[in-house]
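Key result, reporting period 2: structure in, sequence out.
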């Protein structure tokens, strides 16, 4: 069983209200081989919503900040925890998540400047899943 980003399965849940549907991922969900999740929606954030990126504060802590300056770290952490709970319930050993996302990005995310520049790092949900032994892929490498 897989956990997959709902936007990759065709759900219009991205920050801008759109999806990033990948046909092969939609087929996994329809076949009952994957569960589609959106960590941001699990945390109660609305769709559409302001885009957000991870920034590192002066103490070296990760924070998730919207382009309007709102700190949504608590919500992103809550969505990650709920995603992990679901992964454990369904016995998922792997996840296929949206690349570059502050929740789902794996190995490469936006750098926190809202300039479309990329940096090494993991999104909040990806990081939690990895720490709990769940292998994380993106739509680029599954």
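The corresponding designed sequence is given below.
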């Amino acid at each position: 069983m897989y956990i997959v980003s709902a936007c990759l399965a065709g759900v219009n849940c991205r920050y801008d209200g759109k999806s990033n549907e990948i046909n092969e991922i939609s087929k996994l969900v329809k076949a009952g081989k994957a569960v589609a999740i959106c960590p941001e929606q699990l945390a109660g954030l609305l769709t559409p919503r302001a885009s957000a990126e991870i920034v590192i504060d002066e103490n070296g802590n990760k924070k998730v900040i919207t382009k309007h300056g709102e700190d949504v770290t608590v919500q992103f952490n809550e969505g990650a925890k709920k995603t992990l709970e679901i992964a454990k319930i369904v016995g998922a050993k792997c996840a296929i998540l949206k690349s570059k996302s502050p929740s789902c990005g794996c190995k490469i995310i936006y750098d926190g400047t809202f300039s479309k520049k990329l940096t090494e790092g993991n999104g909040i949900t990806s990081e939690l899943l990895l720490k709990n032994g769940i292998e994380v892929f993106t739509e680029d490498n599954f």
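The chain has four helices and eight strands. Helices lie at 23-30, 39-42, 73-90, 124-131. This case is discussed further under Risks and Mitigation.
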